[in-house]
Amino acid sequence: MRSVVENVTRKVILQKLFCQVLIFHELSMTGAPLSIMELATELMSCGANVSAVVLSKKGGLMQELIRKKIKVIDDKVDHSFKAARKADLVIAGSAVCSSWIEQYIEYFPSGASKKWQKWYEEENRRLRFQPGIVPLSVNDELAYAAGIHSSSATNKINEKRKFFRETVRKELGLNDNDMLVISLSSINPGKGQLLFLESANSVIENESFQEHDKKNQNSSQVTLARRYHIRKLLPMLKDSNSISSNSGKKKQSLKILIGSVGSKSNEVDYVKSMISLLSQHSNLSKSVLWTPATTHVASLYSAADVYVINSQGSGETFGRVTIEAMAFGLPVLGTDAGGTKEIVEHNVTGLHHPIGRKGNHILAKNIRFLLENRFAREKMGMKGRKKVQRMYLKQHMYSKFVEVLVRSMRSK
Fold first, then answer.
1. HSE-CB of 222 using CA atoms within 13 angstroms
2. How far is Cα 237 from Cα 225, in angstroms, rounded to an integer?
3. What pTM, to 2 d.p., does this model score?
4. 3-state class (DSSP) for residue 405
5. Over pLDDT 90: what percentage of the chain?
6. What is the DSSP letter of 66?
7. Separation CA 228–CA 230 (nearest Å)
8. Residues with Cβ < 8 Å from 332, sequence gap 6 or more?
9. Alpha-carbon distances of 214 from 205, 218, 272, 365, rounded to whole Å
10. Is 85 helix (H, G, I), strand (E, B) or coil?
């Protein structure tokens, strides 16, 4: 009964906010653009009149917008600014849209925009309400594929997921002793795929690790130090017997999957630099797989063991792929910048590493740690999955969204 009441309330609120403009920073088939498109679809289903402003047409999402009958505003002659001024609500799809917001304020230096200018100028002024934070969510289709929404018995869910995983891994040419680490996004310096490959190469070639072990293989002091390091890195492992979870089994090898090599928003020169690195390191090249697109990712998450989000600069504001990976029970290795460090709890649902080339060594150590400790990565993955169930499903996102809308309407 409660869910029915919530749905009715949500529709009433959204119908009052009849005209809405959503800002897309680009049209890649990735996190933020897909999220804002899903939101537009939801708003339209509630009777809202939705228009989209596209700042960059890079990517292949335009056909989907047309198919879903989402009106795209031609941004010539400042049409987007005029449409936004008439709208009841404007939603920016990502932090990259800040440039459009700044231009909008300059274009309309009076009225509502003047209030924003005053807030910037009068530092001591307090907002009547604190900014509302609405985290993104895993969409229903992926949540279902991950087994989160299924009403079937747990054993049946696990059997289906295991069969799906085994089938996909077989198609990829992987065996039980391969640890597949994936990174799915458009390929550019901001996403840090080249640095990720450099870190992976250190693990595959055993640079520094192997030399260090050979020099000190008879040293009990170093052995104790390494055990201490691992216990400190992962408190959930309570005794030294748990550290070597792969004992008695064939040593695992590292495999990497990068996507999406077919995205129209990729930076060609950056892709070439990655190919150049692979050409210089044959072992790394043999360990890297590519996927042409990231629109149907359930199979890739199912086949994977670890997810890497290596966003650079100030980091990812909110990487939707992060919570998608967590929904599938994958531990996440992410940079300690931006929203990633808020989503991924260090030593609990994944591990952090610094941005830039200085973070390569730490990322390599973290990959190596999970490669050698199956129990650790399974434990982290399980905790990440539980966090998604608790915080990042669709009902969580829309409940927060409605709260913000209600508060905004009351403040008028």
1. 9
2. 15
3. 0.76
4. helix
5. 37
6. H
7. 5
8. 306, 307, 308, 309, 322, 325, 326, 340, 343, 344, 349, 350, 384
9. 14, 8, 36, 17
10. helix
Split at pLDDT 50, 70, 90, the class of 214 is: low
For residue 339, what are its two tokens? 């929203």
Say which residue the tokens 């990502």 belong to.
94
> Residue 176 contacts by C-beta under 8 Å, 6 or more apart in sequence?
none
Q: How far apart are CA 87 and CA 241, in angstroms?
A: 62
Which residue bears the tokens 């990042």?
392
* Residue listed under structure tokens 């529709």: 11
What is the structure's pLDDT at 295? Answer: 66
Q: Is the dihedral of CA 72, 8, 323, 287 positive or negative?
A: negative
- At residue 75, the pLDDT reads 67
The Cα–Cα gap between 275 and 272 comes to: 5
88-99 pLDDT tens trace: 788 887 777 877
Q: Tokens 């892709």 appear where?
A: 271
Residues 141 and 393: beta-carbon distance below 8 Å: no
Distance CA(336)–CA(392), nearest Å, equals: 20
What is the rounded CA–CA span in Å between residue 370 and residue 350?
A: 10
CB 30 within 8 A of CB 61: no
Q: What is the DSSP letter of 138?
A: B
How would you classify the pairing of strands 253-259 and 178-184? parallel
Query: Would you say 371 and 203 are in contact if contact means Cβ atoms under 8 Å apart?
Result: yes
Digit-coded pLDDT (tens) for 169-209: 999 999 999 999 999 988 999 999 999 999 999 999 875 44
Q: What is the DSSP string of 229-248?
A: HHHHH-TT--SHHHH-TTTT
Phi and psi, residue 216, nearest 5°: -120, 20
Split at pLDDT 50, 70, 90, the class of 223 is: very low
Q: For residue 285, what is the enclosing H or E element?
A: helix 282-287
Residue type, 193: Q
- Residue 174's CB is within 10 A of a number of other CB atoms, namely 21
Chain length of the chain? 412
Crossing angle of helices 268-280 and 193-204, in 10° steps, is 10
